Amino acid sequence: MTRRALGFLLPASAVPLAGQSSAILAVLRQSVADWNRADIPAFMRCYEDSPETTFVSRAVVRGTAAVRERYKTAYPDAEHMGKLAFHDLDVRTLSPGSAIVTGRFQLERTTRGGGPAQGLFTLVLRKSADGWRIIHDHSSAL
Fold first, then answer.
1. What is the CATH class of 2-141?
2. 104 with 118: CB under 8 angstroms?
3. pLDDT value of position 1
4. Mind listing the pLDDT tens digit for each residue in 56-66?
5. Residues 66-88, buried b or exposed e (16+ Cβ, 10 A)?
6. How far is it, in rounded angstroms, from Cα 76 to Cα 72?
């Protein structure tokens, strides 16, 4: 059974009850909106601006600047970025300032843009003065 929360499909057991979960989902919803506008600089605001921020997929990329460059290289234009959606999100608050989010991504793109893609992700987020930000992103295509 699923319920809709903040535009995402969530298992009923993961429907956010605390303000922390709602705030985290708001960050992810904004990141999807930024991606779907093909705005990588805005999309990158969901990541903590730190040399310790990591992105793991085919390789480990360290530092927000390097993650940003990876996105710019892999997704050079709106056609390559396509339209992003997240599904099956599960937010687990670990402490008042840390959380893990697991879910599925779906990327709809034209053939020229690379074709459709989907996969799984695990995000580690930390709360700071700037709000909730991703400090570790492990995304795997299916």
1. alpha beta
2. yes
3. 32
4. 999 999 999 99
5. ebbeebeeebeeeeebbebbbee
6. 5
Cα gap 120→21, rounded to integer Å: 19
Q: Which amino acid is at 14?
A: A
Amino acid letter for position 50: S
Buried (b) or exposed (e) across 24-56, using 16+ Cβ within 10 A?
bbebbbebbebbbebebeebbbbbbeeeebbbe
Classify residue 88 as left (phi > 0), alpha (psi -120 to 50) or beta: left
- Residues 2 and 99: their CA atoms lie apart, in Å, by 21
The residue ranges of every structural domain in the chain are 2-141
The three-class DSSP label of residue 98 is strand
Helix (H) or strand (E) holding 140: strand 131-141
* Token pair in block for residue 82: 């396509």
Name residues of the chain where pLDDT drops below 70: 1-18
- State the amino acid at position 108 in one-letter form: E
pTM score: 0.85
Distances (CA, A) of 50 to 26, 53, 104, 136: 21, 5, 25, 11
**Amino acid at the residue 135:** I
